[in-house]
Amino acid sequence: MNKTYTLSEKTTESLLIKLIDETQVSNKSNIGHIRNILKNGLSNDHISYLLNCILSSDTFTSFAIGDYVTLMPPSYHENERYELDTLIDKGLATKEGLVYGIITGDGSWSSDFDPYCNTMEVNILYYDDVSGDVKPDQNKINTFDLSLISKSKIPFYNKVVQQELF
Predict the structure, then answer these.
(1) Which among 53, 60, 79, 81 is least buried, having the fewest CB atoms inside 10 angstroms?
(2) pTM of the entire structure?
(3) What's the helix, strand, coil split of the chain in %, to 5?
(4) Is the pLDDT of residue 4 over 80?
(5) Same domain membership, residue 73 and residue 138
């Protein structure tokens, strides 16, 4: 799980100002407007996403509803909502402890989906021993803690799982 840091407004503004290459702006009198749009025209989530994309060597992905993702599950879920060995055996977790999930929305209160929201609503795919099927568990997860994956790469859906020993 990624740690989250908070930057002051002044530091964020300084970083945004440095984004504008003044030599590439045709009319220099527009520079103030461009900076104001970056500073005031973007939500805090969008500014955070923008700065992460600029300053990180990682490749970031925007998500859509229905995308499959991998993530490290919240630590308090283990032994309460899932058993890691069971999830691995059923093809719903990796040996490294990552689990799979489906994006169901963003973490905002808006009715419109924002692919750049700093949190995503994710149905983590746990396993229900009673039904023998996936048991979705809704959680709000930091967007930067999610990695896109194809459903075809999830062993549970390919029936590439270990056979039970009976």
Answers:
(1) 79
(2) 0.79
(3) 35, 25, 40
(4) no
(5) yes
